[in-house]
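Hi all, long-time lurker, first post. I run a small reading group and we've been trying to get comfortable going from sequence to structure in the token notation. Rather than ask abstract questions, I figured I'd post a concrete chain and ask someone more experienced to write out its structure so we can walk through it together at our next meeting. Sequence below, copied exactly:
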Amino acid sequence: MEISTKIAALRVSMKARNLAAYLIPSSDPHQSEYVAPHWEARKWLSGFTGSAGVLVVTMDHAGLWTDSRYFIQAEQELSGTPIQLHRLGPARGPEYIEWLGEKLPKGSTLGMDGMLCSLNQNRNIVKILHRHGLEFENNHDLIKKIWSNRPTIPTADIFELDPSFAGLDRNQKFAQIRQAMDTQGADHYLLSALDEIAWTFNLRGRDIAFNPVFIAYAVIGINKAFLFTNVQKISQKLKEKLNSDGVILRNYLTVIDFLKRLPATANLLIDKSTTSIGLYQEIEKANMITGDSIVQKLKGKKNKVEIEHIRQAMRFDGVALTKLYRWLEEALTEKKAVTEAALADQLAAFRAEQPGYYGESFPAIVGYQANGAIVHYRPEHESSATIQPSGLLLLDSGGQYESGTTDITRTTALGPVTDDQRLHYTLVLKGHMGIAMLHYPKGTKGYQIDTLARQDLWKAHLDYGHGTGHGVGFFLNVHEGPQSISSAAGRGGVPLEIGMLTSNEPGFYLPDHYGIRIENLVLTVEAGESAFGTFLKFDTITLFPIDLSLVKKELLTEPEIAWLNDYHQKVFTELKPLLNAEEVDWLKTKCASLAI
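-- Answer (accepted) --
Happy to help. Here is the structure in token form:
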């Protein structure tokens, strides 16, 4: 079905319900960032494949709102369709709602499927719409009426993550959660976010590409824990283990009936950022407690066992990347045709050779030259560029290992480069090291340090349009909260705490020419005590060399050169035992020291 036909069918349904506009977000009933194909309605209806964006359809306009990471991609994918791209500004709110407020006549109604809208989002939407004299109805699932060949809800098996990797068994996690529930006066706690459920129960799944989660809800009670999922996905042996741990299994769609039947005296705690307004309205009770996620805070701070495994995952990843870049150099020397998509496939193959590998943590971003300026570019076999022995290659990728989740970006010179490219690269590197070298007092928030990554770019009147860092899960979602390094409100306002794993990824992008990004994962650790309190710092744990051929050494300070040399010595020392002689020689060259 053509996009114009789909939109026409949607408008017929809208008209029948007297809706002046309809909103299609990128989420699912669990407010996931990445969703199973069953909930990819925005992608199906618009053709835009990016992970972030909102489609708004009125009777005479169809618009897609997305941020700067996807501007170039959206322009390409929306070309030739009746959908207009609307560019979201940095750290801006729901501009599409303000737009509707200006375009729709007073008294008009916006419709949406409330299962795809959190309580927080619903509150913000209603607040803005009412200011413009508009109404909001969140009980309209119009997509199911027009999406005839819609994929089914996934049915992949659920498997257990051994406590030897998790550091805590599920009963220990239940105890932590129940203790936090008690402080809030709750005797039942609803979990909607898929990564939080997977972490809590030490279970993993294959329902969403790149994210080892499964479709479920959960309720933690005082003595029992209830897991609502497709029980056919769980083996008999695992069912017995779960039952012995006080876990009662129920089918996915019975969660609403279960919550409705809770005793009148029950105090139910929900997270207003992950619980959908659709579910909330089905179960709304007078003694419902809304608060921030307990589990997000717990899983965001990695325990000692998780940290040791994560360090091992970084070694495995460094080995795979060493093999890849040697392979690429040899291929280019031998003048073999290597496309961006082929390079992504080869990297996945090298990662698959590593112990405990599960899959990629997100689709590899392999951007050669101009494609590197597309922040979330994903190469396709039928259209990706052929890599040449010249210019810049940006490779942003990650792996899911039983021992942890990785995320790394390197920008590499494949041949002759310009002075501007070296300048821009060095400014990005200085920003990266500004974060990596920082010591900061306990309680410091992400937005307070984001400027350090940008200050040298700003001096040159340059900038980048995305955040500097995001939280990373443990064999879970590559993007997780509660923290971030960003100027944006929300996660950028969360204090960085010991055990948090965060990306450090400043960049610079020159549209139609090239992109530069340097990313490592950093662990928040204690730096020391003073009369001014506890100070923290970042321990860089990603292990792969930074391209020195692009560095304008004269722009670096002595401490920056020392940090770079120390980092490369660490990379070489950690990876050497896992490599053969030829790979060790290659790595030694890439990790050569810069003279101070």
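A couple of things your group might point at:
The CA atoms of residues 351 and 489 lie 36 Å apart.
The longest strand covers residues 520-530.
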